[in-house]
Amino acid sequence: MKKKLLVLVSLILVFTGVLSACGKSGSGSDQTFRMNLTTEPPSLDVAQAQDQTSFTVLSGLFEGLTRMDKDGNIIPGVAEKWDVADGGKKYTFHLRSDAKWSNGDPVTAHDFEYSWKRTLDPKLNPPAPYAYQLYYIKNAQNYNIEADNPNHISDPAQVGVKAIDDATLEVNLENPTPYFLNITAFFTSYPVHKSAQTNANWAAEAKDYISNGPFKLSTWKHGDSMELVQNENYWDKKDIHLTSVKFSMVKDANTELSMYKTGKLDWAGKPTGDIPTEQLAKFREEKNPELTIKPIASTYYYNFNNEKKPFNNVKVRKALSMAINRQDIVDKVTKAGQTPAYGFVSGGIHGVSGEYRSEVKDDYFKEDVAEAKKLLAEGLQEEGMTSMPEFTLTFNEGLHKEVAEAIANMWKENLGITAKTEVQEWKIFLKNRQSLNYDVARAGWGADYNDPMTFIDMFTTGGGNNDIGFKNADYDALVKEAYATSDQQKRVDAMAKAEKILIGDNQAIMPIYYYTSAQLVKPYVKNYVVDFGGNIDYTRISIEK
Amino acid sequence: MSTQLKDIQHSEANTQALFEKLPQRHKEAEIITAESRSTFQESWARLRKNKYAMTGMYVLIIMIILAIVCPMLSPYNTYTNDLDNTYAAPSAKHWFGTDNLGRDMFTRSWRGVQISLIVGFTAALIDLLIGVAYGGIMGFAGKRLGNAMNKFAEVLYAIPYMLVVILLGVVMGSGLFTIILALSITGWITMSWIVRGQILQLKNQEYVLAAQSMGASGGRILFRHLIPNTLGPIIVTVTLSVPSAIFTEAFLSFLGLGVQSPDASLGSLISSAMSSWTLYPWVMAIPASLLCITMIAFNIFGDGLQDAFDPKMKK
Amino acid sequence: MARYLGGKFVNIIVSLLILATATFFLMKAVPGDPFTQEKAIPPEIKAQIMAHYGLDKPVWHQYLIYMKNLFQFDLGESMKSSNRTVTSIIADSFGTSFKVGIIAIIVSVIIGVYLGMMAALRHKKFIDNFFMFIAVLGISIPSFVVGAMVQYFFGVKFQIFTVAGLEGPLDYVLPVVALSTLPIAFIARLTRSTMLEVLTSDYIRTAKAKGLTPHAILWQHGLRNGILPVVTYLGPMTANVITGSVVVEQIFGLPGLGAYFVESITNRDYTLIMGITIFYAVILMAARFVTDVLYIIIDPRIKISGGVVKK
User: Fold this and answer.
1) Can you list the GO cellular component terms from the UniProt entry (chain C) (predicted)?
2) Chain B residues near residue C136 by CB distance under 8 angstroms
3) Fold entry, domain A295-517
């Protein structure tokens, strides 16, 4: 019997050996780029997409009126050139004649008008969640919001976007918007082919999918993988080297890394994947040349509940913020080369002529345990308290847990106060944070567009994302001042003053670090771009083995 | 039937004159309970002869003692960070090394055993109490009530377990209490079915009829006669439900729904080691081995019990 | 027989209705909604989207609408993956879970029964002890540990198999190993203990007396009786393996239903949660139903009369 078993086992081994040997030789086609999306993109409909995964796929499939080059400058996309008039409130785009859809139809100004109005249509099935990205356009908001809106405009013709002819698109804005050309490069502004009128589910499967970018959707195995192949009708085909882009949807970061190590992926990590912290630290230690780490425009911070005692007291907030060691957190806990944050606006954001963060230093406060102790005692006294009550630090699943535990430990050691750490399920956490049902809560904010305003206007009184209960009339006035002008120097000055009120004077939030984006890239992958926000542009990649 | 009954009544009337009726005392309704204890002793004797089972039992006892003693005697606690000493390899200072925040793995691992055992035992105890009571009533009650109760258990059993656990975790926040509750919500059903099956089988046996005819109440028959006689399968089921609860907790930890750090269970220690064990093997190897030892001990011991309680199997 | 099975079928439908109701209200009791997100959508837009999905109506009204659609076999549209119906999501992803699951079950039964039989035949000999030690080990290691280990050693270290995905037939090996470790161990133990019982029974003794070889006795007489508990176990196991493979699917990056289920709950994708729950329950109940039928076919002692199983 033992003999039989032995024979069986050895047979299986030989068999698998032979088969796996066959499997290996077949892989490795030339101009193919493979990366992991982690999850299925929730939607590839331009109007429905609102997340980074969908965006990553869409950015290869579509091209807007403008696009960004590798340094983040706006360059022509479908629009060859444009004129700005009326104090920055009127844009006229002149489209190139050789822009084509993947089915060969020409891309016209009507396609843009159709797409934008479709996104803004309150009757769209379902209504577009990111429609507000187009609210810069005149009357867009009042057309989009139908329910309980006395100013609702039901006539789409009044929305400020109009195709004059096939090659000319005229756009009227509500306010002068210096970064509008960034918006036209953004995925909500991509065109949609008119066939969507008759086929509402055009974006559900690969077979019906029509796009105008460097690639077209060739296969989509839901939840498993996706392949884009070169669009032979793309006007700038000569700059596109990849013949195909393969996306996998592997959820586990360890598995993603294993796939990278075994040559199944050319890219691992951000923006749509992840490298496990310890492994990343190891790669950094080894100075692995395949690892790249780049600061991105996102800030990691803690929310103080500014309405709740004792966090309503600025001295208590300052004490908590000054009593931690940010350098230790980025070096020993998060380990991905992040930089300690003492301000709110992250690096990588344009200022007047250079980077905002180098023009306006984030030296609003310093870490100082002795000073923190003093401030805490004073603050508690002002609130009529003898000691700091035990409070809860809430966060969601992930590395946030380690960060929170490290910070709670620092507070305990440096101030002798006890913070209970509590992980909450993502949506419950958000719900609690948005309804100010917390003491101190983890938060993070990434830039939507390359301007300090994407951070600053968050904390205006009653703002949709103001989840700290911060109310400050001076702050609101400064934000308004920046909105009203298109003079960049004045805007930056106003925003810098606002940031000082937020962090320096009030310590309304506790900045911890500015994010980085870390990825492993095979050495033969050339010409990829990771932009200021950490998004990848893979369209111009070439594989040079 | 009716004529028979009349006969009895008739003869009763006749004998009344000859015999004096004793006042009914519940406790002494019948005193033949010694028999069940002796089967118990017999089983114990059988168990003691089984060297595997005894080894399992001793290992378990040692694990329980260590789980209580080690975290108390250790100079470290489970939560204090030492950021300059992260992922230190096992040494004289830290016997099991340290983890990603420099916390002592020796303390954390034994705390993990402790929590895992608490989860296992509590869940098993709740299964036992609810399962035996429910199963007992289900088996002993009338056909209609019994079937209705069985239906209820079946529906509950059909709810995908994951849904219950995730929903509970989401609503109540993850933690020890949630996990035990989640394990108990459906855990008792198997036990109740086993008890019911046993009771349905035993219900019609002679000694139950005897007890009935001696005037014992339904509840008394259930708890004095039926349940003690189903004790074997109950004990075996409980013993095996402890490791299954420990296992389920580990599985929940993998999905991020288990015991939350800075506290630790074996499952949460293992799952947090999933991304770093290839670099720092001890963070995975130690809790995984402790889990494995505990599970093996429980399973061997459970097997031994099963053999001991099932005379058919004695060989 | 037909009446018995008919009765079972009615039971299944009633259970499903109760289950759907319970799940619906349980799900609605959880805080958050499909459109709660970090960068909050302006409340006016959110209100329009909620209205589109009927989420602005009272919960009981939503329930009635859902049940009405359910009776027309309409599971609705996913609220997270817009443009996709729940039915198509389940259809796409269940195939993978099913394929891997069925292979794992077949492998488990074959290897498990074989090991159990061999152990029983060589009771108290080396093979018995060895196999049973392996089996105890098998039920003592969590599947995610097994999964991670085999993936690392056979996928990354020795690179015999791919680490993730299901492109070729060989890609099934590692997930199936991770998935079937526990059932193999369980079935081996089950088979061994039943076989030991069977081997001491009268009819086997008779067969021995007639001079049949131990192997002939085992395969001809023993197996039929010895396999009964395995069949009983098969029902819940099938359901568990097919529905409970979340962990293995995650480790090996398989596009199965398990991952969708967990995600649907964290996304509060109401229609998808309902759809998958009902689907899982149907699978679970169907597995049990098939087990009952199999049991009747295999066990000659069971006779059915008047809708009740008599043993």
Assistant:
1) plasma membrane
2) 296, 299-300
3) Dipeptide-binding Protein; domain 3 (3.10.105)
pLDDT at C256: 86
Check if the beta carbon of residue A486 is closer than 8 Å to that of residue A528: no
List of residues 6+ apart from C225 with CB closer than 8 A: C194, C198, C201
Residue C62 and residue C50 in contact, taking contact as beta carbons nearer than 8 Å: no
B285 touches chain C (CB under 8 A): no
Residue closest to C113 by CA, chosen among C133, C97, C100, C131: C131
Yes or no, beta carbons of A401 and B261 under 8 Å apart: yes
Chain A nearest-CA distance from B91, in A, is: 21
Nearest residue to B134 (alpha-carbon basis) of B190, B185, B192, B91 = B192
Q: In chain A, what are the domain boundaries?
A: 27-61+213-290+522-545, 63-204, 295-517
Class of the CATH-defined domain A27-61+213-290+522-545: alpha beta
Which residues of C fall within a CB distance of 8 Å from B295?
Answer: 139-141
The answer, for A155 touching chain B at a CB cutoff of 8 Å, is no
Instruction: Dump pLDDT digits (tens) for A171-223.
Output: 999 988 888 998 999 999 999 999 999 988 899 899 989 999 999 999 999 98
Contact predicate A242/A31, CB 8 Å = yes
Q: What is the pLDDT of residues B52-81, one digit of tens each?
A: 889 999 999 999 999 999 998 888 988 888
- Enumerate neighbours of B (3 or more CB pairs within 8 A): A, C
In this prediction, what percent of chain B has a pLDDT beyond 90?
Answer: 25
* Residue B293 identity (one-letter amino acid): I
Taking contacts as CB-CB distances below 8 angstroms, the residues of chain A near B76 are: none
For B260, the closest chain A residue by CA position comes to: A423
Residues found in chain B: 315
Question: Over 80: is that where the pLDDT of A389 sits?
Answer: yes
Helices C126-138 and C86-121, packing angle to 10 deg: 160
- Residue C103 confidence (pLDDT): 92
In CATH, A63-204 is 3.90.76.10: yes
**Ranges in chain C annotated CATH 1.10.3720.10:** 86-298
Best probe of the A interface among B255, B263, B275, by most A CBs < 10 A, is B275
Give CATH for domain C86-298: 1.10.3720.10
Q: Is A425 on the interface with B (CB under 8 A)?
A: yes
How many residues make up chain C in this entry?
A: 311
Tell whether ipTM is more than 0.90: no
- Tabulate helix, strand, coil % of chain C (nearest 5): 75, 5, 25
Q: What is the mean pLDDT of chain C?
A: 84
Q: Which domains does chain B have, with CATH numbers?
A: 40-69+96-309 (1.10.3720.10)
How far does B159 lie from chain C, in Å, by closest CA?
7
pLDDT, tens digit, 9 for 90 and up, residues C23-66: 898 888 888 889 888 888 888 899 999 999 999 999 999 999 99
Instruction: Tell me if A45 and C35 make a contact (CB, 8 A cut-off).
Output: no
**Residue of A254, A405, A409 with shortest CB distance to B261:** A405
Over residues A143-178, the pLDDT tens digits come to 999 888 899 999 999 999 999 999 999 999 998 888
Residue B163 tokens, joined: 């849904």
Judge if pTM exceeds 0.90: no
Worst-scoring range by mean pLDDT, A399-413, A464-478, B21-35?
B21-35
What is the DSSP secondary-structure string of B205-268?
A: SHHHHHHHHTT--HHHIIIIIIHHHTHHHHHHHHHHHHHHHHHHHHHHHHTT-SSPTTS--HHH
CB proximity B250 to C under 8 Å: yes
Which positions in chain A touch C43 (Cβ < 8 Å)? Answer: 464
A521: closest CA among A295, A253, A289? Answer: A289
Report residue A527 as tokens.
């010409």
For the record, the structure tokens of A341 come out as 């944050």
B315 to chain C, any CB pair closer than 8 A? The answer is yes
